[in-house]
């Protein structure tokens, strides 16, 4: 009996080590990114090429920006690739990331029914467009999920001059009371729909309710030209400076989480900001349209 | 450990401060779940009764079908109803999608099999002698049905409770057909899914604890009534 146990134990220990070795040998990089990056299809083009060049497999976990950053804070991933510049900078400033590397940008658009009852077609100032929507109480669908796009939307509402209310909920964090805050136009219960879902769902929702919403251009193109039945919503407001959407990549700080694979993360950063990576990003076409503009020098 | 402690204390803060947003969410959840449970009971209990008390060719097939429907994924029901109520579909003009009504429709479909099968089980368990005695005492069909229902009410109550538990904890249908619109169709479960997506785990677990608290209160009430009726019948 005793011998049996010791044999089994030896076997178990052996398997454990063998398992660990296998993991150590595999070059796997874990990356949290946003649903819009994943949905654009760009990663499906970049990652196989990256694997070709370096032998590194990238495991992609797509979430809202809030949750993607949270993954970085918790050390669940080795690198994050998101688009909410102010929050990325805070992530680095708080010591969770080593440095933010600019990668590329695309832009946001305000979309709505082709009939455009509010009359924002052709405008480029997103703040003014939102003010018009609010002024007429037209249905506006908000991501409301604390994502990069939602962060941008809240920023634009601030620019719009519409009166905003901040609602907050008190919760405990690390034994201390903190507030979770939400921003919404004042008196907007009837028309401002905060649905807390991803970009695709939000576009579908706006289509169903024939309302307005803000989307990144990539997801919109996918729903407009790459899907049957296509959404009928049209781009109404675009091109303003406020609508730019920069993407950054940040390796998780090994000083906070010693087990993160900083070397692999840096290899990916170097590759994606290299001439080759940047060219692939600039050459990427979705339904015949350029989506991303390279930003790395 | 931090997460658990923070979540429990956050749940207390939210509950004790009668947080307006939380109350709104809880009300939507209860509203939808009660409506679905009541409608499904009205349909499911009589169907269960009829199936249990009739003999027809293919009864076993019907039973097998019903049992299979217990495993119907919420996402499938969500998609099915969606394809009827979306703007370009047959029922599009009714503007049902992303309303509480749409959630209720989906949830009713979800729990009719639960209530029906459990009602059948409750009735089938009863001693045949109840039926026989009622018949020999000259009961007509309706009177016999009443007698059987009275005897089986403990089991039928359990069926309704199980169904209620299923809908209040359900997330797929609520998300797909309700759309998680704040103040209109945001239920406790979709709110939890959202807080998880946002990375606000503390709030998500706090909402979970709140949901369990309400479930406990409601089940305690059920149990109270059930217990009383049970002792009366003994």
TrEMBL record, chain A:
Cleavable signal peptide: 1-24
A Pfam family per the record: PBP_like_2
Gene3D superfamilies for this protein: Periplasmic binding protein-like II
Superkingdom of origin organism: Bacteria
Protein keywords: Signal
InterPro entries in UniProt: ABC-Tungstate_binding, PBP_domain
SUPFAM superfamilies from the UniProt entry: Periplasmic binding protein-like II (SSF53850)
Domain PBP positions: 24-275
Protein name (record): Tungstate transport system substrate-binding protein
Lineage: Bacteria, Pseudomonadati, Thermodesulfobacteriota, Desulfobulbia, Desulfobulbales
UniProtKB/TrEMBL annotation, chain B:
Gene3D superfamilies: MetI-like
Keyword match rRNA-binding: no
Main localization, broad class: membrane
Locations listed in the record: Cell membrane
UniProt domain ABC transmembrane type-1: residue ranges: 26-222
Membrane topology term: Multi-pass membrane protein
Family: Belongs to the binding-protein-dependent transport system permease family.
Protein's recorded name: Tungstate transport system permease protein
Species, as recorded: Desulforhopalus singaporensis
